[in-house]
Amino acid sequence: MTLSVDNISYSYNKGLPTECEALRGVSFRAESGILSVIGHTGSGKSTLAQHLNALIIPQSGSVTVDGADTSGSPAEVRSVRKKVGLVFQYPEQQIFAESVEEEISFAPKNWGLDEEGVKKSVAEALAAVSLSAEFLPLQPHNLSGGQKRKIAIASVIAAKPSYLVLDEPTAGLDCVSARELEALLAKFAAEGMGIIHITHDVELALRISSEILILEEGRVVFCGAPEECAKFLCSAPVKGLVLPDVLELSKRLASSGVVDKLEWSAEALLERLKEKWRARTK
């Protein structure tokens, strides 16, 4: 199971005076786990997200999903779109159905499942986002922001994609709803789904990701593990990205020799300081 992006480039209004280059030679691989793509506003994150399930076709380079090319035959494109679910930023704004059941059942019906298959997919998708069957007859627009976000995600995973691409999934959510969504992403990843998580939130990316890719002006400037990403961000400023407060403090403590490892969570940094204190007082 591999989603492969090879040297893709894309410009809006190509050939016109208003041409804007959004992606420049972007390459990476995504499998299971959570890959977070971070970058400033206008770095190309959303454009990249839409390339991953063939909503946008690269003007050069290629995107392949388990061997199927997004610029290939209609059958290949259909395969890509079934395997790669895309959840847009503020997905609740795209909810169109009169009931939760109708909203979630749209994708499995569209992929040709019979009535029993659709009911099973709807039930499994609803359970996957930790909502009960009591929600099925409700009108989505009357639900809370966090519940709407879960319904939007359930409507995508009802088609059982191998990969889930989410564009700023926690944007606009309160802290409790955002944490619930983070737990869902971790659960999906643990079950073997490949998660491509688009965000500008550095601390969130460091906390939940198995790998992080940084875009700057449409180019990949870093791709690697969270620990290496923290080192990179502390050594080379990236346009529009601000170090989380705890990482900034950790950086200063490390440069002073107080700690020997960068941390981005308050709990981990506090534990590191306790270890140093215990070692010095023995």
TrEMBL record:
SUPFAM superfamilies: P-loop containing nucleoside triphosphate hydrolases. PROSITE patterns: ABC_TRANSPORTER_1, ABC_TRANSPORTER_2. It is found in: Cell membrane. It is a peripheral membrane protein. The keyword Aminoacyl-tRNA synthetase does not apply. Residues 3-242 form the ABC transporter domain. GO terms for molecular function: ATP binding; ATP hydrolysis activity; ATPase-coupled transmembrane transporter activity. Coiled coil: none annotated. Its main location: membrane. Keywords: ATP-binding, Cell membrane, Membrane, Nucleotide-binding, Translocase, Transport. Belongs to the ABC transporter superfamily. This is Cobalt transporter ATP-binding subunit. It comes from Synergistes jonesii.
